[in-house]
Design goal:
10% of the residues lie in helices and 39% in strands. By secondary structure, the chain is mostly beta strands.
Amino acid sequence: MLSAKEVENYSVTIYMDPGQSRGAEIWFRDKDNRSAGRIYFVDKEAESGKNFVDRGGNPVVHLPLSMFEAVMDLIRNEKPLYFGERALSTSKEPIGEAE
């Protein structure tokens, strides 16, 4: 299992072709602007690929398109943010922290 990498920036692609099984994708980059992994959001569970680690050691995760908004909310509102093959996570924060 790989350790999670801190995410410094990201890019989002939303696909407009209704025939495309992939509805959106998010690519993460680390502080050195190197790839830190990506998430593919798929419209149909049956077309979801298996999660894997690419040749560069970065996680590639497939999630249902219904999770896109929740993931974007986390990315926009939390820092630091970490991405690994099993989770997208934040650091420990105090309860009731005002955003």
